[in-house]
Design a protein that fits this description.
Elements: H1 2-21, E1 22-30, E2 34-38, E3 47-51, E4 56-61, E5 66-71, E6 78-83, E7 86-95, E8 128-134, E9 139-146, E10 149-153, E11 159-163, E12 169-173, E13 178-181, H2 199-203, E14 213-219, E15 222-231, E16 234-240, E17 247-252, E18 258-264
Parallel strand pairs: 1-7
Antiparallel strand pairs: 2-5, 3-6, 4-5, 6-7, 8-9, 8-18, 9-10, 10-11, 11-12, 12-13, 14-15, 15-16, 16-17, 17-18
Amino acid sequence: MKKLLFTLFCVCLGIIAIAQETKVTKFEMNVGDTIVWKSFEKPGKIQYDVMDSKFIDYQVIGLGNEIQVIAKGEGTPVITAIFGETQSQAVIIIKGPKVETPVVVIPEKPETQPFTATFSFNPPADNFFITVTNPVSDCRETFVKIGNKEAYNDGREIDRFWDIKDGENWYYRPEAQGWTDDVKWEFEPLGKSFFPLDSFDNEVDKSNLSKYYVGMERVLDVNCWHFFVDNEDGVTQYWVDPANGCTLKRQVNSETPREVTVYDLKYTKLTFGPYFKKGLHDTRR
């Protein structure tokens, strides 16, 4: 019995000794970050075992006692280094890509002025070609209407053309057939208006515009009403065309504004579209 107890005691001491010899180092990383972990102070014949290697790229560097790790996915990989009877571990906690929070700058509001004009929202209903910057997707959106023919382009992959009377619908494939027939009526008509032209009309209480009016400023050679509207988290500025109440420029705090860059309200002749297609493989815009 004493011999058995002594044996168990020795086994426990061995387990404790092994546990004491395993040094654990924790790292917190974001996807894309790089670290170098020194598994042991002295170089030697070191073996590495990696659990959940799919979350990292790694390579042994230096004299074999360092390993470079690049985080490529969210997870918690563990690297175990074995040097003789000694172990060392790196537990790596990887979070999503590090996103820098933009600094919000709230512009100082100029002194307001009495607004003596009358605001009325009468957006163009026909014969227009309007292009608007879209900072969210870093591109330009285009809206076109002549009679029953309407078109929309998002500046990237979506390029559509349709007829709101007979439901004919096309999309553009520059790599193949150019304008290509699509399912009839599978589109959303432009309707009365669209963002940001309708933003001031939809977003602002117009009962006392003198609280927001700060003067006139030109946008696209249009002498616009300039409004500063107070919000809970800052201000929104609007530059509004007095002729029709359309917002030609809209800016929240110091963010990149949404702005009209092409403003043709007398567009009477289409210069693109499926009606110009000469054959099946005509890929002209």
